[in-house]
Amino acid sequence: MLVAVGALAEFAGLRDVVHAVEADPDVVLRWSAVGGAPAVERVLRIAGVPTVAWSRADGFDLVLACHTTGEVPGLVVSITDSHDIPVAVGVSTEQDRAAAEASIPGAAGRTFVMGDPTWARVLAAAGRRAEFRARLGVPDGVALVALGCARPDAISLVLSRLPFDEFRVATVVPDSAGSPGLIAVSPESDWIAVLIAADVVIGDPGPAVRYARGLGRATLTPDVIDGDLLAAVRANESTVEPITAPASPRLVRDKVRELVDLEAVSATAASRPFGPLDPATVPATAFLMSARESSDVVTVTRVPHLPDRRAGEDVLAVDAAEPDPGLRANAEIIVHPAADDPAAWVAETIATSHCALAVAAGDRAHFTWYTGQTWTADVPGLALMAVAGAVYHHVVDNDAITKPIDVRVGEITERITFGAG
Question: Residue 125 to residues 109, 135, 143, 191, 272: CA-CA distances in angstroms?
């Protein structure tokens, strides 16, 4: 039997579907990337599955592939014979049968309920939520927003509209790494870990959103990205929509044996073991910050810097580890979170860069303004860069620090008391 993979997003689900078939000694199974797609071929190689080139993918008794036209809400696979004639269509639940037979050519009378092996694996791993959040680098008290939509600008828009100190953004779409601050996993990783770790899922209709609702996660459609995204994410409430798909992974195996006239077997079949979780995250080392003061509290918001996303009043703050010399040269604030000699570092940075404020932490945080004014403070519970944004805002508006500053980041407010440097 040949498993034809048409896109990266199909691979994990197909592995779940055919896992029991792979373990059947009476069936020889091979994988192939439809059209020889290089990205899919790469993932097949990394996964170590037995493959055949698409140009040589003929002569198989059966070919199994995802059906992805969207008429059926659950997971759907089609099975064709060596003449490309449909012989079976697998659907997740009995409720999906009518829609499949009405919309898929050749499905009438050939549809069978195969269950949803991926959902079975989601349920089995649901108790590992805290572990997955830690592996993905999500801090305590920070909400994880998972993206599962094909819209090309979704990642950059969501990253630029959700405050970094309140939210992290992850993607369940394979091969999406590259945007600073985005939590991505390698294409060969088990993407369901992101779904289990998430608090909110923004996605197109499909398995990811369906599983999220089954877990009781809050879900939003991609059109919220063009509105008040922050308000929508904060206000959205989770709802549980039970998934009634059978969980037995042997149903597809039994159908395949039937189609090739093999005797039925009674052996049980286990779900596919949980695979690797390899984050492919690019750390955010440059941020756009804004601040506003009300009732003597300075509220600071920062988002990862992305090209062409800077508004007129945004302040550019970079970490000392920022690799882009252009960003370092244009930053108003430069921060070193762990300097060996904070006083010396801020003095040198002010002298050798164009920034207005240099900040470094050691035993205490040191703040030096470009005019030479220097302060020190303990910054126990807030991100150093966010406090730097509050100091920048206060000095620009007031010209000096003469009293403690109440700094609010997300839901946390801290009073920062400054001493002379």
Answer: 35, 14, 20, 12, 12
